[in-house]
Amino acid sequence: MSNLSESRTSRITVRLVALQILVFSLLLTLGGRLWYLQIRNGQEYANEARSNHVQQVVDPATRGSILDARGVPLADNQTRLVVSASRTDLLKMKDDGKAVLGRLAKVLGMTEQEIRNKVRLCDSKTPQPCWNGSPYQPIPITDEATTQQALQIRERSEDFPGIIAEPTAVRRYAAPGDANTAQVLGYLSPVTDEEINKAKNSSSPFLRSDQIGRSGLERQYDDYLRGKAAVTRYEVDNLGRVIGQAKSDKGQAGSSVVTSIDARVQAIAEKQLDQAMKDARQQVDRNTGTNYKADSGAVVVMEAKTGRVVAMASNPSYDPNAWVGGISGKDYARLTGKKSNYPLLNRAIQGQAAPGSIFKVISTAASVNAGYDFNGHYPCTSSYSIGGQVFKNFESQSHGDISLGRALEVSCDTVFYKLSHDEWKKDGGDKPKKDAKNWFYKTAHQFGLGKETGIDLPNEVTGRVPDRKWKRDFWAANKAGWCEQAKAWPKKKDFGTKLAREGCLEGMKLHAYDSINYAIGQGDTLVTPIQMATIYAAISNGGTLHDPTVGKAVVSPDGKRIQQIRPRSHGTLPVTRKTLAQMDGALAGVATRGTAAWRFGGWPQDKIPMHAKTGTAEVYGKQTTSWFATYTKDYAIVMTISQGGTGSGASGPAVRNIYNALYGVDEKGGINAKAALLPKPQGSLPKIESDGTIEAPPIKPYVLPSPSPSGSPQ
Fold it and tell me: Does pLDDT of 1 surpass 70?
């Protein structure tokens, strides 16, 4: 019995000791946690707690201007009467501010729904318009308030609690001389939470009030243009009363960006592109019997010696001012919908299409590199046949035995068909040799195709060189889909099923017809206007491939610091000086006696040598794409019109008119130096004052004389 009692006492003792250890451990843990919170990280949590009672007032920085090469503002700021709503104040009201917004709608002449849409917050399901910035910042409802409307709101402040009407600097896209420049400039919209978090630890973090560039130069140079907002912080008590002022940050205006764009030339380029598309729609496509659609186009005017972009236009276009103060739902749908054909797209750097015959300068260089004599004799027959397929020359024309230079002048397809086919066979045909030279594809890569040019604009696309590697990769990515569609064969023998079957079985092979089409810029080849402008500028300047540039300099707000953006090159054309000179002569022949001659009738060729190449690219299921590539010693101009017809027919007159304006050439070929729009040397900058202002010359719309060349299209 005694042993049992001792055993029980021992167990109780053990339990008490365990309980004491547990209690001690809990106390120790609690004490450690208190030490960690109050001593180790006490200051950090104290600061966070204090920040809960700190309200900040943000005074946005004045965004820097974007100027043309002469100092004319393309994008700047203007003071407007902006009406904003404090969402925080509205939500404190019993009806969430509905009555206030209703009264505001009557004053502003808007519907209540329009205003409610403006102040709602964006999320993944909320359509535009909505507010994508901080819910604690005043949300702009309109930046077009009249003085009378602003006075009504301010004088009846008791009827409009939470509503602010005050002068504010807002972005303005000036369109000097009707130079819209939309896709080059881009547009702004409020910063998102995701962007704020991503940039939190960067050297340039965002505030919730920031507007940032979404495309074009506004995006490319956003870090310079945005500046730094002034932030004033106030300590408040639990009732929201100010009890002191905390540390504040000084603001700094954004820097200005001077560009190589000449607003006068830009306006001409935009108008001529638009007119060329309208004129093309009046012409009938002989293949279909219907009018050309001419649904989109682009033009690039580039300084040949430096790669600086003097003008860049894309059509359809839009007004970037639509984004200022928050875009409406109607405008957003119009700018992003398929029906409008995506006007936000900059087709000069993002539009890809088969280049047609303007690609033949590359095929010519490839032929010479492969060992063919530039001045040799090559049969220009009306057609070329392989394996039962017949590939015709343009309008089935035959020119007998001609040189490569003459083949460029008359744009003879069959000469390049045969040369490319012969090289394909030398490389092993369907079963390529290990040491295959692939001259036609290699040369295209060396000319800079299949990759970005490096222009200082965002979202440039690469185009495509459909060489053997691309064929294999494309087949691997699409094989499953092709083979699934091909199961319908032979019951279903439509063109799509036929292509799918062929792709499934032999899509990895580079066939003879692939190389033949490729030699004249057809098939799977894709280029952008900026790529071709860079290539033709290089032919003009002696062979240097420049990175195209739009920005010339960044000027600090006080004008004391100027950071110049100097042209850079990314390579040279893979041709000898002799071959380059021969190609140059042939391209001059295109403008004087070849396919572009009828568009340059009366041009002062002896004073301003003109060089050109026309291109008409066939696209399956669509009308032909018009290309016109040209250059002088000063400029390269490339224009393209989707579903616009022939190169010289659709784009030729517009390009001629742009040159007329640049050099002051009249209808009879005379040169009026005073009327010429020759920009200043692109190394120079407009005069910049010590306060950062630039004295810009006046600009007015330029009226072009229209030449009336005679002849017929080829």
Answer: no
Higher pLDDT, 64 or 242: 64
- Tell me if 90 sits within 8 A of 103, measured CB to CB: no
- Per-residue confidence band for 330, with pLDDT thresholds at 50, 70 and 90: confident
* Cβ count near 389 (within 10 Å): 10
The two structure tokens encoding residue 422: 């012969």
Name residue 642's beta-bridge partners.
Answer: 296
Kindly list the distances between the CA atom of residue 564 and the CA atoms of 222, 546, 555, 578, in Å, as whole numbers in the listed order: 16, 17, 9, 35
Name the least confident of 14-28, 221-235, 366-380, 452-466: 14-28
Candidates 550, 527, 533; CA nearest to 351 is 527
CA quadruple 164, 167, 171, 177: dihedral sign? positive
Neighbours of 109 (CB within 10 A): 9
Query: CA 247, CA 254: separation in Å to the nearest integer?
Result: 22
Specify whether the CB–CB gap between 619 and 354 falls below 8 A. Answer: yes
* Residue 129 clears pLDDT 90, i.e. is over it: no
**C-alpha to C-alpha distances, 400 to 378, 585, 597, nearest whole angstrom:** 8, 21, 21
Instruction: Give residue 179's pLDDT band: very low, low, confident or very high (50, 70, 90).
Output: very high
Helix, strand or coil for residue 611? strand
Residue type, 668: K
Helix H, strand E, coil C: the string for 547-598 is: ECECEEEEECCCCCCEEECCCEEEEECCCCHHHHHHHHHHHHHHHHCCCCHH
Q: Alpha helix locations (H) across 464-528?
A: 468-486, 495-506, 512-519
For residue 292, how many C-alpha atoms fall within 13 Å in the half-sphere facing its CB?
A: 27
Rg (CA), the chain: 33
* Cα–Cα dist 203/187, whole Å: 23
Q: How far is 431 from 334, CA to CA, in rounded Å?
A: 50
**First-to-final CA distance of the chain:** 124
**Which residue reads 């303005």 in tokens?**
172
Query: Which residues 6+ apart lie within 8 Å of 31 measured at CB?
Result: none
Helix axes 413-426, 439-446, angle to 10 degrees: 110
Sorting pLDDT into bands at 50, 70 and 90, what band is 555?
very high
How would you class 713 by CB atoms within 10 Å of its CB: exposed for 0-12, middle for 13-18, buried for 19 or more?
Answer: middle
Task: Tokens 């894309």: give the residue.
Answer: 314
533 DSSP 8-state letter: H
d(CA 284, CA 289): 6
- Give the confidence band of 268 by pLDDT, cuts at 50, 70, 90: very high
Residues pairing with 85 in the sheet: 139, 163
Which one is predicted more confidently, 93 or 210?
Answer: 93
Compute the C-alpha angle 352/358/364, nearest 5°: 125
pTM beyond 0.85, yes or no? no
Distance CA 135, CA 141 (A): 14
d(CA 240, CA 578): 80
Q: How many CB atoms lie within 10 A of CB 101?
A: 24
Q: Classify each residue of 164-176 as buried b or exposed e, where b means 16 or more C-beta atoms within 10 Å of its C-beta.
A: bbeebbbbbbbbb
* pLDDT for 138 beyond 60: yes
Of 607, 615, 639, 584, whose CA–CA distance to 268 is shortest?
A: 639
The stretches of 201-311 forming alpha helices (DSSP H) are: 216-220, 222-225, 263-280
Q: Tell me the C-alpha distance between 635 and 306, whole Å.
A: 10
* Chain segment 409-433, per-residue pLDDT in tens: 999 999 999 999 999 999 999 899 9
> In which element (H, E) is residue 256 found?
strand 256-259
pLDDT, mean over the chain = 87
Cα dihedral angle (96, 99, 103, 104), rounded to 10 degrees? 0
